[in-house]
Design brief:
By secondary structure, the protein is mainly alpha-helical. It has one domain. The protein contains eight helices and two strands, in the order H-E-E-H-H-H-H-H-H-H.
Length: about 220
């Protein structure tokens, strides 16, 4: 048995569904990547890339072309995000990444891109049924994942909100597609996303306070 055959072989049965090794391993690695993202560690990207490579096999075995496409997209964006964070432009003094809320223009572009992208990909999946048996939820997750990872690469807190919206559809879709372990992991993702959102949100407040403190000190020193 080859390595690929083993990854897509059955590990056990849960809730009446067969759980395959690639589904288990890929999602556990994905959880690790999300936890590293919460800690603003650059290692989140290579770990996310590895998760994407493994999950390509899981979604292929479930005949979810949209899921396969999503993971291929994850791989590409992970490489880009890795380069973005390695550039040093967003790094802080402790070696982690600086985070912030998106500006009005950035939010508009993210929202518009997500809506238009979902319409385009959903229409493609509808016109070519072989690409996905559940076109609109598949398209929503496909484009939502791209939006979330793009926001993460730019250090935007909105990254976590995007993941929350993806989870809302991802949990029932995973269970209905026979990927029980993916469904369970999406539930765990929800907890990590809420934790990560709180952490990044508080970090923006800390960074704002640290930035404004020197200005206040300079202003006070200038008072005669």
């Amino acid at each position: 048995m080859s390595g690929l055959e083993w990854l897509n072989s059955q590990a056990f049965t849960a809730f009446g569904q067969h759980v395959i090794y690639s589904d288990i391993i890929g999602n556990v690695v994905g959880l690790a990547a999300l936890a590293l993202g919460w800690r603003r560690s650059i290692l989140t990207w290579p770990v996310q890339l590895l998760s994407g490579v493994i999950l390509v096999g899981a979604y292929y075995s479930a005949q979810l072309a949209g899921g396969v496409g999503k993971q291929l997209l994850v791989i590409v964006v992970a490489v880009w995000g890795w380069r973005q964070w390695r550039s040093g432009k967003q790094q802080t003094g402790d070696g982690t990444i600086a985070v912030r809320f998106a500006g009005a223009r950035e939010r508009t572009l993210l929202l518009a891109g997500t809506v238009l992208g979902t319409l385009a990909v959903g229409s493609l999946f509808t016109l070519v049924p072989s690409l996905s048996w559940n076109p609109w939820p598949d398209a929503y997750i496909f484009v939502g994942t791209l939006a979330a990872m793009t926001a993460q690469a730019r250090g935007l807190v909105e990254f976590w909100f995007a993941w929350l919206l993806v989870d809302v559809v991802g949990v029932p879709l995973a269970f209905s597609s026979g990927l029980a372990f993916s469904g369970l992991v999406y539930v765990v993702y929800l907890g990590l996303v809420l934790w990560g959102l709180r952490s990044w949100w508080l970090r923006t407040r800390t960074a704002t306070a640290e930035t404004s403190a020197p200005h206040r000190g300079a202003a006070e020193g200038a008072v005669p």
